[in-house]
Amino acid sequence: MKKNFLLLVFFIVSLNALAYTRAENIKNKLSKIGVNKTIIDKTIELDYEIKDDFSEDFDDKMEKLQNLYAQDNKNFYVSDLIASGYIFSDEKDFNKAKEYLEKGEKYNEKFDNLLNKVNLYTVFNKEKDEKRYKNELKKIYNGTPVMDLLDFIYSGIENYRDEKLPNSSDDLPFGSFYDENTGEIINGIADDDDENDNQNMNFEESLDEINKTIRNSSKETDKNVEKFRRILKYFSDEKNKQKFSLTDDIYRNLELIMETNNIEKISANDGILKALDYYINNVSNKAQDKEFEFTKDREMTLYALLYLASATIKDEKVYETYRQKLKDTKVAKLLRDSETKTNK
Q1: Nearest CA to 79 among 45, 113, 56, 110?
Q2: Rounded Cα distance, 52 and 102, in Å
Q3: Who's near 222: CB < 8 A, 6+ residues apart?
Q4: pTM as predicted
Q5: pLDDT in tens, the chain (344 residues)
């Protein structure tokens, strides 16, 4: 999903209550339907290895998942992961994704089945089915914080919508694709031309475009403050987290969107030193160890923004003090550990 770091918020929810890891979610879900401990442990291990990322080693990851799934076809967590790979990666395949979602549907919970179908039909531009399952979810959850969360999820799914579903693509002119919804052959070259136009902008025009994007995002964000307030408050309850499989890493990523903009507000109103103090004392120390690989991108972005912002401190001694404080934060340590593992 595209990361929106411009969410202005007027509250901060404590992370102290977080205690529902991905491992606990997998264990709870699969043990209920009789999957044995060995398979559950293997599922947890593979889930933490893949980290929801199919951008690299797609075939290898799929092979591991399919081999594990073959050991127990009740393991809907793995069949859902396989389907996700065919939905959200560059190796999109509607039929395979649908097949694996249907394999797990018997054992999965209603909420997850409905959301899985929204994911599938949204990404593959099947608007009639997409609307159908969104309406089903809306009937159940309209007016609740769950619906607020779903709206946020839907906006992210849109970023994966497949605009170029092929149909006899070998017979189409270069740069064209078949639009399944309209039956038209679309020239896909225009988007490239638009990108070239953007590259030809002078620096002032480019800055104006950036400013426009930021201001529009800020205005959109202002409309959603209450929505995010309800989401985090509702899912601070452990029972609600478990019911909807909203694990700590998902909650932390939502929280980091909030924290980033709260820190931007502190910096604008009270100065960079206050913003740094807030981050060091209230945000970094709540980063999660085991789930860190699932939240690392947002953690790293916020850390980098503050590290770079610290360069504006004029007093050399104060600058060195805060630079060291940042390097001593839990996030910095986890980032170093992650880099070391990656480089091995």
Answers
A1: 113
A2: 20
A3: 8
A4: 0.72
A5: 333 332 222 222 223 334 689 999 999 999 999 999 999 999 999 999 998 889 889 999 999 999 999 999 999 999 999 999 999 998 999 999 999 999 999 999 999 999 999 999 999 999 999 999 999 999 999 999 999 999 888 988 887 886 544 333 333 333 344 344 443 434 443 444 444 555 567 777 777 876 776 666 656 655 666 677 788 899 989 899 989 999 999 999 888 888 887 888 899 889 999 999 999 999 999 998 888 989 998 899 899 989 999 999 999 999 999 999 999 999 999 999 988 887 77
